[in-house]
Design goal:
The structure is a single chain. This protein is mainly α. 80% of the residues lie in helices and 0% in strands. The protein is built from 7 helices and no strands. Helix 1 (2-20) runs antiparallel to helix 2, helix 2 crosses helix 4 and helix 5 (89-96) packs parallel to helix 7. The longest helix is centred in the middle third of the chain and has 32 residues, at 55-86. The relative contact order is 0.17.
């Protein structure tokens, strides 16, 4: 499931880059690689980009990353419970991104189904793998 979240997020981030912006696709892909981890992704992007584009441009990209990842977390907070009750918990886990293992976990498993223990394990594994992948992907896209 983490690989599907990573591939899906980066694919749709790239498509959105082609349609909506003329910013460098590597910068937008780095922003999308935050997976909702706004505290780490914005700091890493600022550090990696500062050497190549300067402090002001790096701060601008980092601010966009912060806002984009906060928006992802808000969407997850608003939709996880609905997705988990209406469909499958795996969809809620994927939408939550890195927040599947902490902030969104009660809404993902709070539907009273018998598969809650499996969802908890999947959500924790998903969140940990995404947490490990954030610095790796951001460093790749910012270099």
């Amino acid at each position: 499931m983490p690989s599907c979240t990573i591939i899906g997020t980066l694919t749709f981030t790239y498509i959105a880059t082609m349609i909506f912006t003329d910013e460098p696709s590597a910068d937008v892909m780095a922003i999308g690689s935050g997976f909702g981890y706004y505290t780490l992704s914005s700091v890493l992007i600022a550090q990696f980009k500062e050497a190549s584009v300067g402090a002001e441009a790096a701060a601008s990209v980092a601010a966009i990353a912060l806002l984009a990842n906060v928006v992802r977390e808000m969407i997850a907070l608003l939709s996880c419970q609905y997705l988990s009750k209406r469909g499958r918990g795996e969809a809620a886990i994927s939408v939550a991104g890195i927040n599947s293992m902490d902030v969104c976990l009660p809404m993902i498993v709070g539907n009273g189904k018998s598969s809650d223990a499996q969802l908890v394990s999947a959500a924790l594994f998903h969140g940990i793998i995404l947490e490990i992948s954030v610095p790796i992907l951001i460093s790749i896209f910012c270099s």
